[in-house]
Design a protein that fits this description.
mainly alpha; 12 helices; globular
Length: about 290
């Protein structure tokens, strides 16, 4: 029961990132890239604090300057930039669905390219998830999502997929995440300047960004890495199917977002396809983190 509660709390934290991002950026309390920078900075500080509490060395020259840290920071920046810019126009639940779907599909395709065994059910699941996403975001009269925002969120999902692949072999994931957040904070500065960010700032917006960075990202990731070793890979991958569902329901309740039939049908296709794709032997798959 304790493990179930911890996993549930972690999934709630992951879904809350979409709610907080949409509330701050979509609500006009903060500009997109400014929100992303505040989230990264507060997340880096929280993760560094957790490393210090646990007696983990974080800021050695070798660790900070190694290529894996730089690439990890770059991938995290792609995720954060696409995430925040997309939430200028996307609803929280739809954004989470696109993000989650692209992450899972990209990881599945990478495994297939690297020679992982792919059965007919897994291939069919990946195709179903892809067409489900296409159905949700395809422009149509009276339905469909903003295409530019959907592409930005897809780029964000690709960034997180790359980040997950880079971090699979990390011996100290908490330390690596802290360093990656610090690097991404630096890399986000030119992105913010190029996007004309940093111009909209409010106390409420900063509060939402800090909550997203320090609590639902920093503490959320720390909790995920704590429970991850106690989960079978199949369970770790499958349990994340709950994240878009939580975000869709929370977006409707907390932000007043509508849940139309297009979103319902698309979500069933995406999540059903992903469920088929992840039902593989545990040894053939590595868990992901949203």
């Amino acid at each position: 029961m304790r493990l179930f509660l911890l996993v549930s709390l972690t999934m709630l934290a992951f879904a809350a990132n979409s709610i907080l991002g949409r509330a701050a950026v979509g609500g006009g309390y903060m500009d997109a890239t400014g929100f992303g920078l505040w989230r990264l900075l507060s997340g880096a500080l929280m993760l560094a604090f957790l490393c210090r509490v646990r007696g983990l060395e974080t800021w050695s020259r070798e660790r900070v300057l190694r290529p894996a840290s730089l690439w990890g920071g770059a991938a995290l920046t792609l995720y954060m930039a696409g995430f925040t810019l997309a939430y200028q126009d996307l609803d929280a639940g739809l954004g989470a669905l696109v993000l989650f779907g692209v992450v899972q599909i990209s990881m599945f395709l990478w495994g297939a390219v690297r020679g992982s065994r792919t059965g007919a059910a897994q291939a069919a699941g990946a195709v179903l998830a892809f067409f489900g996403l296409a159905y949700v975001v395809w422009p149509a009269e009276g339905g469909g999502a903003p295409l530019a925002a959907s592409l930005l969120m897809a780029a964000s999902g690709l960034g997180w997929g790359i980040y997950s692949l880079l971090g699979r072999g990390a011996r100290q994931p908490l330390v690596s995440t802290a360093v990656n957040f610090a690097w991404s904070s630096v890399m986000m500065l030119p992105v913010m300047l190029l996007a004309g960010g940093g111009t909209v700032l409010s106390g409420y917006g900063v509060l939402l960004a800090v909550l997203s960075g320090a609590v639902t990202s920093g503490l959320g990731y720390a909790l995920w890495y704590r429970v991850l070793p106690r989960l079978l890979p199949a369970a770790a991958a499958t349990v994340q199917l709950s994240v878009p569902v939580i975000a869709i329901l929370a977006g409707a309740v907390l932000l007043g977002e509508s849940i139309g039939l297009r979103l319902v049908f698309g979500s069933v296709a995406v999540l059903g396809g992903i469920a088929l794709a992840v039902l593989r032997p545990p040894a053939a798959r590595a868990p992901l983190a949203e």
